[in-house]
Amino acid sequence: MADIETKRIVCESGLPAFIAVPGEISRPRPAIVIMHERYGLVQHTLDLAARFAREGFICIAPDCFFRHPDQKELHAGNARYDITDDEAAEHLGTAIDVLEGMKEVDDDCIAVKGVCQTGRHPLVIAARRKVAAALVWYGAAQDREWETSDLYHEPLEDIIAKVNCPILGMFGEADHMISLTHVRRFRNCLEEKGKSHAVHVFPGAPHGWLNDTMPGRYRRDQAEAAWRVQKDFLQEVMSPAHDQTTIMSHFNCVSSEDYDFSKNVRQE
Q1: Which of 79, 16, 42, 3 is nearest to 212 (CA)?
Q2: Is the pTM of this model over 0.85?
């Protein structure tokens, strides 16, 4: 499914968004809301949205940091926008409303994906309204996520307890921000709260390893393997045959026998 259509919209709330749609739609399709990394709505996220569309999903990428006053500096990584859980939930809710208003979308098959800084926010929205799956890419596992703050008014453990959809966690062994101890704490919480989940750790992958616009971080083999895992996960949990009354629990971690988190370094 190579042909796609894309467009930019501004939602009623003023939220800008990018939409990618498969070129031929003969029946309602599953959909993805994808949140961008800390750089705002840059080309990498648009590329991912287009890739989802080429694979048959309708994808919307909201610009959740559009209120930052200096978008150029934000996109360059020289500035940061500290989004609260409530603001993220507002924007994600708006994006989901857009999808639910499209006749081409299967309302029962809308998943939410967050990456890095926004990794926790699929869980935040899944704790507040119905979604088909929460996709967490190298986020939502650091120590700060489990505590309350000006940004996080509820600890991650309490948020996870309210989630009622399968959760996919994607992490890298060489991440300088998220250790295997962090990942296991995240996995253990999912287990303790009885949440369907699949958590994967990819060997040699640093933080940001999906982003092919950042050569220092991108790891093609791990990125392609992870994308296949994500595709299979979505196909399984969005299948009409999926039994939502069962709990699946998968943990797949590959790391070296001399793993040392303190030796992981930031890649540019």
Answers
A1: 42
A2: yes
Neighbours of 262 (CB within 10 A): 7
Is residue 266 in some structural domain?
A: no
Q: How many domains does the chain have?
A: 1
268 belongs to a structural domain: no
| Residue 124: CATH number of its domain | 3.40.50.1820
**Which pairs with CB-CB distance under 8 Å and at least 24 residues apart come from 261-265?**
261/179, 261/180, 261/181, 264/174, 264/175, 264/176, 264/179, 264/206, 265/176, 265/206
* Tokens at 63, concatenated: 């610009």
d(Cα 212, Cα 120) in Å, to the nearest integer? 22
| Residue whose C-alpha is closest to residue 246's, from 199, 187, 194 | 194
Q: Which token pair is 242?
A: 């999926």
Does residue 264 belong to any structural domain of this protein? no
Give residue 60's domain range.
4-257
Let me know if residue 55 belongs to a domain: yes
Contact 132, 165 (CB under 8 A): yes
Neighbouring residues of 254: CB distance < 8 A, sequence distance ≥ 6: 173, 201, 202, 203
Q: Which of 164, 167, 165, 163 is CA-nearest to residue 183?
A: 167
Q: Residues 179-226: pLDDT tens digits?
A: 999 999 999 999 999 999 999 999 999 999 999 999 999 999 999 999
Helices (H), the chain: 43-54, 71-75, 85-100, 121-126, 156-162, 180-192, 220-237
Pairing between β-strand 16-22 and β-strand 4-10 as defined by DSSP bridges: antiparallel
Q: What band does 1 get if pLDDT is binned at 50, 70 and 90?
A: very low
HSE-up (13 A, CA, CB side) for residue 55 = 17
